[in-house]
Amino acid sequence: MKKLLIIIKFIKYGLLELNQIFIFLINYLRGKKFFYTDVDRVGEFIMAFIGFDEFLKKENNKSNHIIVYSDNSNEFKIANKFILNEILATFQQKNIRLINSVFLIKFFKFINSKKNLSAKFDIKPTNEYYNFIKIKNLKINNMIRSQLTNGELNKNFYFIDLEKFNNKHSNLVTNLLKSNNLKKKNYITTFTRDNEYLKSIYPKFDFSYHEYRNLGYEKLEQSINFIISRNLKAVRVGNIKKKINKSLFSDDHIDLNYSLNNEHIEMCMISNSKFFLTDTSGIADIADIFNVPTAKVNWCPVFSSVKKKAIILPSLFKSKTTKKLLNFFDVFELLNKSGLFYNQKTLSYNDLDLEIVKSSEEDILNTTKEINSRIDEDNFSPLNDYQIKFEEKMRRIGFINPGLIENNFIKKNYKLFV
Question: Which domains does the chain have, with CATH numbers?
């Protein structure tokens, strides 16, 4: 019965979208290439589109590439339609053709389920994925986010021009800041990952395998007090998040609560903040669109790439048996030998005798102080030789911009990183 309903729905959208299907067929016969991506996770689709944009910059004939998407919330879980529309509008300004079709997305997903490339290219350079597409001459492609996507971006990268964005949404931005007594770049945005968002989107799915990425928001309290002492304010964003005791907040530390109907708030608020204090949550990638600096605490694992204007505070690995802290490159070898990687559901750190040591309040405070100072001085260069050696070793195993580790943290834990 379930299969029959799927077929009926498929036929229904086919009949409703005959125009889109005709446009697809004509362009397919003309040799055009079609690209789509899942839009259920903010971090995933933002960086997939950015990776695609970086690829387009190297293409001579951009008109050969067509983006297929759907903004139908009844058929697809769309993490944030406002952000999706802003990204698509940016591609339109670059004269990239867009096709809005439920039928084609479902059709493409079915085709790519037979030749899923995501796992193969998960830690490959984005351009290597698209070169593969060019060599194989694949016409229907799933845009993927590589773990290197962020690191491939130059220091002054931005995908959306903030001034143009603010002019376009002048009323939204002005009213939002005014209602919270805020001024542009005179506040920071904050967020820590918890279980609430994924539980609400996928109530039947067990995400306990990566709860190590969660961090209690209360651990940011010292850092926020420091920010307030510097005549800045702090704003906690996130439309689905764990409820926190109201006593933690004040006129200078605002807990923004808003529904999914107000999707613009996250983008407007983060884009105009001085920096984003967060963790491994996908919402951090909103800052990347505008090149807003980020402080990524409880960063686990470190085997990834981040943008140039980012300070990371890694979580540490400890042996459950010996209780000793482990060198990151030894852990990398362990993960490689296991044939698994950190974001696959089949991986359990427990099975590998690994325990995650989360970031402390003191280290988070030092990270906050450092990024605030670096922004004021416009300096995102390494401050010590340990950082340089760490980056060299990471490049040798394929990670092109692992991020600036908080200065005090890498000095006291240098044996774990070099």
Answer: 2-146 (no CATH), 158-416 (3.40.50.2000)
